Amino acid sequence: MKVLNFGSLNIDHVYRVPHIAQPGETLPGESYALLAGGKGANQSAALACAGAPVWHAGKVGPDGGWLIEKLATLGANTEMIQVGDTPTGHAIIQVDDAGQNAIVLFAGANHAFERAEVDAAVGNCNPGDWLLLQNETNEVEYMIRTAHGAGLSVCYNPAPFTPQTGRYPLDLLSTLIVNETEGEALTHAGEPEGILSSLVERLPDCDVILTLGAAGVTYRCGDETGHIAAPCVDTVDTTAAGDTFIGYYIAACIAGEDTVEALTRACTAAALCVTRPGAMDSIPSLADVEAVP
After folding, report:
1. How far apart are CA 70 and CA 76, in angstroms?
2. Less Cβ around it within 10 Å: N or C end of the chain?
3. HSE (CB half, 13 Å, CA atoms) of 29?
4. DSSP category for residue 65
5. Is 42 exposed, middle or buried (0-12, 13-18, 19+ CB in 10 A)?
6. Does pLDDT of 197 surpass 90?
């Protein structure tokens, strides 16, 4: 069993600032870093760090070769990543003194997928394999329908949220993972309980996981419903926390762990992630996660 991730690859320009810039405000940057990122690439990195077999399907421009090398070094299969003429996607990220972030995203090559490429990648999978999707690539709806038709388990993380998200065939998903902002946009409910209840009612055959940041995660997976607390940590940077959670959760599921074990491990990995700066570079190793009491 493996994971096929149609995912974004971004070059992250990260600026440390005293607070997130307001409209019309100019702030001095306290530091600058050029880092590997993209929600898709981060999630593939987390899967690889957690020991899962992950094939990353993506696109970069001539300036993105080092992103491919970095993913490969972490253990992801990068044979399906193509280098073309369209510029690599990139992000401008502000990180404030509380560890919160604000991001401007340019899609670039991440929006250059063609349907024939989707067909070919899914054709290399077997029924029971996983497809992982985010909202930083094009052709998301076609990817969902194609993978479901081929017997894959489809896990979707609608981040960043777009108006099209609610019109996708979410009933074809095996797993939906959202944070509170995404969940509220999908359901128009304002509290975690209401968000989860609404999603469960809408998607009775789908595992629904609602991440709550420092408050942990609430979920309905199969016949199980519950809440998992997150470890208390000193937050440095939250940029890749959700991506780390997703990668470690899927890896644990593939490894045969039960729901509580998988979600607990994912929460632990995400908590370690936020204690470190950066996106892909902040994702902890499996040994680090297993060392947490």
Report:
1. 9
2. C
3. 11
4. H
5. buried
6. yes
Q: Which residue type does 192 have?
A: P
The number of beta carbons lying within 10 Å of the beta carbon of residue 69 is 12
H/E stretch holding 177 reads: strand 175-179
3-state DSSP helix/strand/coil percent for the chain, to nearest 5?
40, 25, 35
Full-prediction pTM beyond 0.70?
yes
Contact 131, 154 (CB under 8 A): yes
Tokens at 101, concatenated: 């972030």
| pLDDT tens column, 53-90 | 999 999 999 999 999 999 999 999 999 999 999 999 99
3-state secondary structure 2-23: CEEEECCCEEEEEEECCCCCCC
Q: Which residues pair with 80 in a beta bridge?
A: 57
Residue linked to tokens 């000193």: 234
Of 96, 207, 237, 243, which residue is the catalytic one? 243
The number of beta carbons lying within 10 Å of the beta carbon of residue 258 is 12
Structure tokens at 255: 């490894």
234 tagged catalytic: no
A 10 A CB-CB count for 31 gives: 10
Token pair, residue 181, equals 């902002």
